[in-house]
Amino acid sequence: MNTSTSFQGGSFPFDIFNLDFMASLTSNFLNEVDASASLGADFPQPTQDADLLKQLSFIPGLKEVLMLRQIHALEHATVWVLSESRNIYTPKASANKVQIDNELLSGLSTDQGFYLYGEVNISDLRRAVSLALHRITSGEWDLAVHPRCGTNLSVAMLLTAGLSVGVHLLLPFRPVEQLIGLGLAATTAAEIAPDLGSIAQRYLTTAIPFNLAVENITCKRDLWGKNGHFVKLSWRE
User: What is the pTM of this model?
Assistant: First the structure.
């Protein structure tokens, strides 16, 4: 039903109000707002870290923190890409299987780049880093999260400690109740830590590496004398 009010002005009648049209316009506008909000929430903006650095450049160490988060994400993405390469990293006994996560590979991020540990050919590593950077900045943002990240362990430890303290204070101070409470706290922490760890990685300890450029990849020992490959990265606007 089209309900309208007309006004006759001279010889030019026109609609002042068209309820159906206004309802449709309002609905479309709200849908666009919802879509924009969803897009902003789910899709990282390529310039968000660069813009933040420009606005808060007076904060010491901010660039290093922003760069470390992006490097951390690229480290995870590189491990994922290397793990997907069955010809290089799948054992001969299981050559017909696709390996999702190669537990023989690990990494360590710094504000200058990241170390990669494991049996890796440097040529394959160069290709993997380049491919990982392309894929993660092109929309495969889940590559930034890895289940073996140290963030998950930290979250699990904090959860276990927090729940243990809470149980200790809430339950009677008798050995049996305290032991049962500690067991429940540890079990609960183990169950929810992976999901909370993934959330912490996604929003706190990693960021999509829109501002990273690969300088070089070399064989190098870390601070503890462990051999690995070091992927040196630089910041670009």
Answer: 0.74
